[in-house]
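Question: I have long wanted to understand how a fold can be written as tokens. Here is the record:
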Amino acid sequence: MRIRRIAPLLAAGVIATLVPGLAPARAAAADPLERYHQQKPAWHRCDSSSPAEYQCATIKVPLDYRRPAGKKINLAVSRIRTSVAGKRHGVMLFNPGGPGGEGLSQPLVKKSMLPKAVRDQYDLIGFDPRGVGRSSPITCGLSTEEQNWLRPYQPDTFGRNVAWARSVAKECRARAGDRLQHITTRNTVRDMNVIRSVLGEKKISYLGTSYGTYLGAVYTQMFPDRADRFVLDSAVDPGRVWRGMVQVWASGAEPAFTRWTEWTARRDSVYRLGDTPAEVRKTFWDLVALADREPIEYEGEKHTGDDIRAMRGVFFSPRSAAEVVADLKKAADGRTGDRNSSAPAGPDDEVPEDNSLAAFFSVVCGDTSAWPRDPEQYRRDAIREKARYPLFGDFASNIMPCAFWNKAAESVTTVDNTVGVLTVQNQWDSQTPLSSGRGMHRALKGSRMVYVAGGEGHGVYSEDPRACANRAVNAYLSTGELPAGDVTCRATSDRNRDAGDRRPGTTPPRVPGAPDRF
């Protein structure tokens, strides 16, 4: 079900007020955030077309947690409360990924996925992270072309790409101002803890996907005593944030590409791309070379060889990749491809068009100062990585605005705690590949991992009651008991057929483009 954006969500009259300092002066001095913890949200129906049980409110959080008496920003929060007497365990927060992904609709999305035995135990809580969607959204004022941030390396275009990266960083500083340095993972985690307190809970449970796993891991690091039952689905490697997580897209794509050539060769009678892996590989790279000489008209647009390489995410689902490449080959041969695609939904008029990307840059550039500052380092890396990983290596290592970003306000978080956490991971995940999920599992020393052998797609947890990962997640959320050890199971064929390369609740990417977030 696609949840439409909620336009009238945050009318001025429903913003929660900050309760003035009613506590004694000593208590206020002991906890400078007390005024935020004492907020009383003005809950209201989110939208006239949504269920009455789906409620929204706005709370305030400090822009800079080092100066809680200073500027404040809005944080949009939503909930669906459990009404089952005697079964309530607490609250469960959600994050669907990003950085830059909106999460306000998550209670509606997850209610349709969670089994009743789990749903009855929790108030389901969504929120748009700071700077995103309805939570004081930021913008860099970027044009459509400026938002094209994953760029292939070519010697004759590198100088223009450096100028683009420098310009984007400058535009973001000019448009977002002093807010830019405060849209970070650590501050979003602090916001989550304010939400916990405002809801009157000692602890929170949590289900985060993709970037949401990193939020969850950092929460367990910063607030270990406040973490209850945490599920991290398709995990970021906390040791690779953030350039390393972009680069892992390239290293992860190569084995997926090899697997695709083997799978497709066995089905030459269907796709006609070659009857050996070597022939399938040659067909693909011949297609890339052809498109570099003369772009291929496909679905109303011209596609270069670099455009075709940029579809690396589709190779994590061999069937999808075979269909797309076969259609591109038909188009190159002058025949019309028959694959349908869904154009992405247009932006909400009340949220800046570049908001999601502006928040993405703010987090990945502002979480860490480890980004190289010398443009020539990016040139060298892109050349080297393209040779190592021909499909996507140069895209993943090329220049980014982070090279010209302000220095991070805080050190990147080292995740190394022993909080009990359940991680779940597909074998063939394009956005957070298996090596990334294993990195998270190693960092969280008290975690258990559910590994889905043969699993395809980004985002493991679904409403399928047959899937072994779902059984493990639901058992943990119901009882709080982690498996005795790590769990390995095999994906069902139906799940793989439909998984594609997307998170639950999102629209499939337009071919031949590829998802470019976590």
About this structure: The first helix runs from residue 25 to 30. The chain has a mean pLDDT of 89. The CA atoms of residues 461 and 470 lie 6 Å apart. The radius of gyration is 23 Å.
